Amino acid sequence: MPDQFSRTELMFGKEAMDKLAASRVAVFGIGGVGGYTVEALVRSGIGSVDLIDNDKVCLTNINRQIFATHKTVGKFKVDVAESRIAEINPKVNVRTYKTFYTPTTADLFDFNKYDYIVDAIDTVTGKLALAENADKAGVPIISSMGAGNKVDPTAFEVADIYETSVCPLAKVMRYELKRRGIKKLKVVYSKEQPLKPVLDTNNEIYNDELTERRHIPASNAFVPSVAGLIIAGEVIKDLINYDKTS
C-alpha cells in the first residue's frame, strides 16, 4: 500500500528507507540554509531530528527562510519547525533546543547519539566547536560555508574544506581546523565572489540599532535554500551509502 515515502522508496529501496527512519540527525541553525535542510530531511524519511537554534522569526527572515511567514513572526524558530514537521510526518521524533551553540554550550549535547550532524550556524567559533566535537565522537558532519551576499545558486560545490578556494569563510575555517589537527570536514561552499550590500540609509535594517552589533549580509530566496537542499541530499546519500556509480 502506498505511503508518503513510496516515491522515495522507488529510488533507494526499502532497506534504505528503514535506515533513514532509524536515523537521528542534529541540525544546528535552522535559518535560511538549515531550515530547508530540515524540510528536505523530514520529507525524505528521516525518523529523528534535533533542532538547535535560539532565534525567533523576524520580519526580515521572510525573504529566505522556509519557516518564516507573517503568522510565525515572533515565535521561536524551533517551535515553528516542530509544528511544521508534525504536519509533514507526525511520526518524526523531534527534539528542540532554544540554544545558541558555542563552545560554552557544547556540553549540552551528546554527539555520540547522532548519526549525522549539520552545521548551518553563522559563527566561526560555533562551527569550529561543532567540527571538533563531531571529530571526537566519530560522527559525520557537513558544514555550510558562506551563502550571504551571493546570487548564483548554481555555483555551490561539495568538497573537503582543504579543497576549497575563494570563499572567505572557508579560508578562515581551513586555517583554524588545521591548527586544531582536524584533517577533514565536508562542506558546501561557493566560489562566487561575495557582493557588497547596497548601503541604503533609507533601509530600516540599516538604521536598526538592534542590528548594528554585527554586519548584516544581503540575501535572497534562491541561494541559501539551494545550499540547504544540497546539504540534505548529502546527508541522505551518506546515511544510506548511496553510490550513483553502482
What does this structure look like?
By secondary structure, the protein is of the alpha/beta class. It has a single domain, classed as Rossmann fold (3-Layer(aba) Sandwich). 34% of the residues lie in helices and 13% in strands. The protein is built from 8 helices and 7 strands. Helix 5 crosses helix 6 (168-179). It is globular and about 55 Å long. The model is unreliable at 209-213 (pLDDT under 50).
CATH structural fold name: Rossmann fold
| Form type | globular
Query: Could you tell me the number of beta strands?
Result: 7
CATH-derived architecture: 3-Layer(aba) Sandwich
Give the number of domains: 1
The helix/strand class is alpha/beta
Helix and strand pattern: HHEHEHEEHEEHEHH
Q: Give me the number of helical elements.
A: 8
Widest sheet, order of strands: 3-2-1-4-5-7-6
Q: Considering the protein shown, what is the CATH homologous superfamily? A: NAD(P)-binding Rossmann-like Domain
Low-confidence stretches: 209-213
Which band does the percent of strand residues land in?
Answer: 5-15%
**CATH level-1 class:** Alpha Beta
